[in-house]
Amino acid sequence: MIEVTHDVFRLAQVFTISRGSRTEAKVLTVRVTREGVTGWGECVPYARYDETLESVEAQIRSLPEGIDRLALQEALPAGAARNAVDCALWDLEAKQAGCRVWELAGLPAPGPEVTAYTLSLDTPEAMQAQAAKHAHRPLLKIKLGTPDDMPRLEAVRAGAPEARIIVDANEGWSAEVYADLAPHLLRLGVTLVEQPLPAGEDDALLGVDRPVPLCADESCHDRRSLPKLTGKYDMVNIKLDKTGGLTEALKLRDAARAEGYDVMVGCMVGSSLAMAPAVLVAQGAAITDLDGPLLLAADRAHWLLFDEAGVHPSDALLWG
C-alpha cells in the first residue's frame, strides 16, 4: 500500500530568496507498507520545475502496488514524486532486511558532514545582523540574484569575518555580471557561486574565466544533465528532489566525480526525513548544504542531530 499525506512545517522566521518569501514548508510524506512493515520518505514539490503538491501526489498515486525501486526508475521521471517513493522503498527494504540503508547500498558507515547555513535575503543591515548571529558557523550561504547583491555581500562579510561564504545567485545573473563581480567575490572570500545564469541560458558561460568556481544547480538534475555542463561548471549540486531519489543521486555523484566535477549536496526546505537520505550522498562532498531542518520552528520526531561536527546520519527511528 502507498499512502500520501500533506504535511506543513512552520519556519522559524520568514525565508526569502530572489523568487519570493515563505513562512512554511509544504511537503508530501509517502508511506509504503508491505507485510506489516512501513518505509517512508518525503519530497518538496517545487514550482520552478512545474510541480505542485497536487500534481506530485497524482504521480505517486498512479504507481502500481508492489512496484520496486528498479521499476520505479522507469515509471516516473526524475523529480519530487519519484524521490519520496524511492526513499520510502529504501527505508522499507532496510527494515525488512534488519540493516541500515548504507549497508544495502554497499556504502561505508556514514559520519557527520559540516553543512552550510543559509541566510535569508533581506536588507544589508538585516543580513549583517543575521551573519553576526551565525558567525560561529563555519560555512554560510547567501541567496543573491538582485541588483543590490554587493552591499548585501559586504554586510555579511562584515558580520561574519571568519566564515567561509558560498553564494546562490538563483539564476539571477548574466555572464557579464558574474565577470564583473568575480574580483569582488574573491576579495570577500566567496568560495563558490551556485547557478549564476538561468539554466536555459548558461551556454553564455562557455569560455568565461571562472576565478570563483561555479556550481550547476537548476542545470543539473540527473546523470543525463552532465554532457550539457562541460566547460561551464566546476561542481554539481545534487538534490534528491531533482534526481528523483537516493538511487539516482548516488549514481549521479559517482558519474560527476568520474567526469572531474566536485560535488555539492543540497536540499529544498524540508524536514529531517528529507535530509536523512541526502546525508548518505553527502559523505565526502566538497560542500554539504542540508540545513533545511535548522530553518524550521519544529521538526519530525527523532530529528537529525546538528552540532559543531555538522549534520549527523539519521537514527534508524527516523529513516534508513
From TrEMBL:
CDD domains: L-Ala-DL-Glu_epimerase (cd03319). It is an enzyme of class 5 (isomerase). Keywords: Isomerase, Magnesium, Metal-binding. It holds the Pfam family MR_MLE_N. The keyword Transcription regulation does not apply. Its EC number is 5.1.1.-. Residues 124-215 form the Mandelate racemase/muconate lactonizing enzyme C-terminal domain. InterPro entries: DgoD-like (IPR034593), Dipeptide_epimerase (IPR034603), Enolase-like_C_sf (IPR036849), Enolase-like_N (IPR029017), Enolase_C-like (IPR029065), Mandelate_racemase_C (IPR013342), Mandelate_racemase_N_dom (IPR013341). It comes from the Bacteria. Coiled coil: none annotated. Its cofactor is Mg(2+). Binds 1 Mg(2+) ion per subunit. The keyword Nucleus does not apply. Belongs to the mandelate racemase/muconate lactonizing enzyme family. This is Dipeptide epimerase. It comes from Marivita lacus.
